[in-house]
Amino acid sequence: MRITRRIAPIAAMAAVLMVAGCTATGGATPDDSGVGAGDDWTAVGGAADESSYSRLVDIDTSNVNKLGLAWSLDLPGEVTLEATPLEVGGVLYFTGSYAKAYAVDAKTGKILWTYDPQVWKHNPDKMHFSFGANRGMAYEDGKVFAAALDGRIFALDAKTGKELWIADSIPEGALNISTGAPRVMNGKVIIGNGGADFGARGFVTAFDAATGKQLWRFYTTPGTPEQNAGNAALEMAARTWGPDHLKAGGGGGTVWNGMTFDPEANRVYIGVGNSGPYDPELRDPGGGDNLFNCSIVALDADTGEYVWHYQENPRDSWDYKATPNIVTAELTIDGKRRKVLLHAPTNGYLYVLDRETGKVISAGGTTLINWADGIDLETGRPKERENIRYETGLTKIWPGTVGGHNWQAMSYSPKTGLVYIPIQQIGARFSRKGGSENAFNVMGLMLEPITEKPGDGHGYLVAWDPVAQKEAWRVKHAHLWNGGTLATAGGLVFQGTADGWFKAYDAATGKEVWKFNAGLGIISAPMSYRVGGRQYVSVLVGYGGTASAYGKFMDVGWKYGAQPRRLLTFAVGGEQELAPSPPATLKVAALDDPDLRISDADVAVGRALSVRCAACHGVGFHSAGTPGPDLRESGIALDLGTFGQLLRSGALIERGMPRFDTLSDAEIRQLHAYIRAKAREALGKREKEGDSPMPRL
Fold this sequence. Notes:
- By secondary structure, the chain is mostly beta strands.
- Among the domains are: 1-29 and 328-406 and 434-451, no CATH class; 600-682, Cytochrome Bc1 Complex, Chain D, domain 2 (Orthogonal Bundle).
- Strands 1-36-35-31-30 form a five-stranded antiparallel sheet, with no helix packed on it. A five-stranded antiparallel sheet has the order 2-26-25-24-23, with no helix packed on it.
């Protein structure tokens, strides 16, 4: 670990990484009333403001060294855990890998009830489009809400787990899936979805929280002229697209994570995702901005009517997205108190927006950026560099597709005035002319992650002053893909890391003040609550998700099924011991049949086919703790006959393995050949080839 204190943003590759239109007069305030969570943690980000901030002070810098494990709960059958638990009235609520809902006693860790939406039974085809992850639940008036992978949103009685209603949020035949947490809005519940990478069209849907009746739907990209007619927002958006854009798919723009309700304005701010296909010439050769992709859109919470938008990346061409969490706050800027949105999308900037109008106030670069020279505060548009859309056939861009900041929650502390952002630094290579052995064809482009610049391949915890648009401090992590953050009034910032540590830092300085070996990588964000006069901090432990999409770049050595997935809860004076589990290892216990002959032609075709397997088994079969086992080590995948039988039978569908009954005999043989080739690489019996990225759902 390395801590660096700075008074200016990073400068690299001549990129202008700080653009500010205000002078710093102090965004911090000693009064944090109304910000974040108190005794209860009632929303994914603690409260409606999504600040991931706790006003509790029982645990602080003076006693955090006495923090210990109060209790732990093993979660058999779970793999990737991305949710942040809720806590209401002494009960924790959270979801597992496939939206299984849990209610747990917050003092003891005893399971009170569970509910499984059983996607494998209701809509097994949707399981082909998943990293096996879900980001949590919503709570309102004695009910909890979550969304299954197939888009069914369900309401449960918070005390008993009884199903109250269930509704479909995705029309039949649509390619969308749901992995995000719903949000509640004064008697309404809203849910978005993912799938832009597969040609889906984005939208959000609001339901009556009491009955499940659909109230309104807002589409984030335009449809046909007939569908747009009479809808002013879609007619406006359509003018930024070519007339034939639907021929290439739905356009993308899915809202799969960030949504923030503003009770005072009665608005909901939605973070719109990337374009699909990525290549703008395939998607829309007309050269338009392609609204509302990569935008924050403000909607009237009662009606779903458009209020305003701010597009962070016009004509997205890089899988950039505005889906990270959106924080509402009040800052003192130029001597005036301003109601703002704080947002750090994947493009690398931290934006401060006026939440009444959507106008950008300032923007600062929090990581290595080479696609723009800043943000024009008059127009709100980025100052783009040349050839960033692979006009000459090739572009290397930072941040890469995984972004400078992704879905892992950033937090905001009104005490320090700082935003705490989980950052990763890695580039991406886009090519229309083919690529190296590391590249995969993704939506018509050859795409691969690259680590070429100083600092690449690492994650960082960055403390950022949003008023001055300056970095306060940063901590360098050993690995790329780490957890979300929790800031507390006790002067602490908590974050989990890929290599299995749960840590606390001094919020003012970045000094590490406590750590705990969780036995497995952490990507979820922690939360805090008080029950019985005692403050607790909880975090779900279950590395995975996008780790599969980046193969070797995010492979820390966690094995499928080897390390327990857990909920860990800490308190001052906690004395429980965590049962030991196997350590991480990059050693692959690959299997091989020396009598099996495989052709290079079959291996090449099988490599292209393996994109269908990568979401669960990892790109290049670097398992990285993914939802499925390392196929290089699998006895089933060793024999062609048993391998083909499993693919077609769906025998393991309840465990997340979908049925692949459309694969031909030749395709199964070719896919098997690629698995065997990768196993021999691991054993040193075959020359290595590169691995490739999958898009983020």
